[in-house]
Design goal:
Layout lengths: L5 H64 L6 H15 L6 H19 L6 H17 L5 H8 L3 H29 L5 H30 L12 E9 L3 E5 L12 H8 L2 E5 L12 E5 L3 E5 L2 E7 L3 E6 L3
Parallel strand pairs: 3-6
Antiparallel strand pairs: 1-2, 1-4, 2-3, 4-7, 5-6
């Protein structure tokens, strides 16, 4: 027979009760802690969800605000302002063709830049807005007060409806010209600008041809009048990737004997033309006649150099 103390056996019931009580208390405390942690996790999840929702909402709101300030292509508000000025000059409700052409140049560059996902910053738009408002405020034909009176709006409304959209477009076009530096390396600013304008105009006609036709008919824009176009005769002295130089008065024997700069200084002239739609056989020394319609500017550092667009070219004498 085992020598187990009977008192210990009797006391075992109380021990079991204590053990059970301790176990139950431990389980209850653990459940309370877990419930507390679950509550904390729930609150944290809810806070994060709210923050994420607010972030997404603000991003969407910012996108909507950004999209709302992007003016449309071929915005007639610009034509309204130009019509104000032209009517003041001609005494009739008539838009000059040159004004309409300038409108198309701005709109084509803006549309082209927009297609390339070019977006100006608010600071860039604000800088352009200041310049534009200065021009409007200094204009005397008509004055700013006369514009506001005719439109029956306040200065603030004028800025929101007319000036800001124009500023946005100008800032966008400026960025387009900056980007074009990469596409047209080693090209003069004047010729580069002309090349980009031609690309932009082609883009506008391709995508907005019907809209342009409607505006032409609405504002009764006359067809382009035929006019005599000037011609520059001379010899080709330089050919780059996107332009070529013509100097008048150069004789064949001068080529190779004097540098290009020396020939320009000697003959006191030189014109860079865009290298567009020219004969494939065009070489340095060829005598040519280049037809053009407008000046693109000049080079301030070289008083004898200017830049012109190109309508056509004819090789009069090949260099041999």
């Amino acid at each position: 027979m085992s020598k187990v103390d009977i008192r210990v056996v009797r006391d075992l019931t109380e021990s079991k009760k204590r053990v059970m009580t301790n176990v139950v208390q431990h389980i209850e405390q653990r459940n309370e802690k877990q419930a507390s942690k679950s509550w904390q996790y729930g609150v944290l999840t809810m806070i994060l969800s709210i923050c994420l929702g607010l972030f997404i909402f603000n991003q969407y709101k910012d996108y909507q605000q950004q999209a709302s300030i992007i003016p449309p292509v071929l915005d007639e508000k610009i034509l309204e302002l130009q019509l104000q000025k032209d009517s003041y000059m001609n005494g009739k409700e008539r838009l000059y063709r040159a004004s309409f052409d300038n409108f198309l140049y701005l709109e084509s560059n803006f549309a082209y830049a927009k297609s390339k996902k070019i977006v100006p910053s608010q600071e860039q738009v604000h800088q352009e807005l200041e310049l534009i408002m200065n021009e409007f405020n200094y204009d005397t034909m008509p004055t700013m007060d006369e514009r506001l009176q005719k439109l029956q709006i306040s200065v603030e409304e004028f800025i929101a409806i007319y000036a800001k959209p124009i500023a946005y477009k100008m800032a966008t076009v400026n960025l387009l010209m900056e980007v074009s530096n990469t596409d047209y390396k080693d090209t003069s600013d004047q010729v580069r600008g002309w090349l980009v304008e031609q690309e932009a105009m082609d883009f506008l006609k391709q995508h907005y041809d019907k809209d342009i036709t409607i505006l032409r008919e609405k504002y009764k824009i006359p067809k382009k009048e035929s006019q005599m176009t000037p011609v520059r005769s001379g010899r080709v002295l330089a050919i780059k990737e996107n332009e070529f130089l013509v100097v008048s008065g150069v004789i064949k024997n001068d080529i190779g004997q004097l540098s290009v700069d020396e020939l320009v200084q000697k003959h006191k002239n030189g014109t860079w033309f865009p290298l567009v739609d020219v004969p494939k056989t065009l070489t340095i020394g060829d005598k040519v006649e280049v037809e053009y319609s407008q000046a693109l500017g000049n080079d301030g550092s070289k008083s004898f150099i200017d830049y012109k667009d190109i309508l056509g070219i004819k090789i009069v004498e090949e260099y041999q």
